[in-house]
Amino acid sequence: MKKYQQAGLVTTADLKVFLLFLLDNIRYPVEQSTVLAIIEENTDDISLDYEQCLRELADSGHLLFDEIDNEKFYMIADKGREVAAELYDSLDRNLREQSLKSAIKHISLAKRGASIKSYIEVTESKKYRVTMEAYDPYGEIMKTSLVVNSQEEAEQIKRNYEAKPDAVYRGVLFSATGRLEYISH
Question: What is the DSSP string of 98-136?
């Protein structure tokens, strides 16, 4: 039995939910070859079923599709996000976790079209609160604040976030989830 069938990907609908799950977590256009590499890494199988499912999801408006220089790009559409969000829990938990680890390598604020914002405020206790925010076209991705003792330290944090927002974002995700994959590539 194929590994993807052992993980509960038995029907075409299961495969489609899995594809939507991956693309929803990446959140920006990604090459078909990258999607297939993530699938292969997690299922030990690449078949024409996945390519067919990608085409069908694009045809039905659940995915956005474009082809540039003979490379196919896919991105989840609002319709796909709405429909699939309710179905993600139907995927095997271990498969979701493993495939998310693979997809993490492809998460980038810049590629998402994210905008960032950071600012410093003086607190009532005369400390400095640095707030770091990130937004993509669908809304807020991150809003986190740190309170430090000196203005110099606050300004350093703000400069670091503005220079390397992806690194800070991944660090926050690592700290919140404990998933080393956010910082280990």
Answer: HHHHHHHTT--HHHHT-EEEEEEEE-TTS-EEEEEEEEE
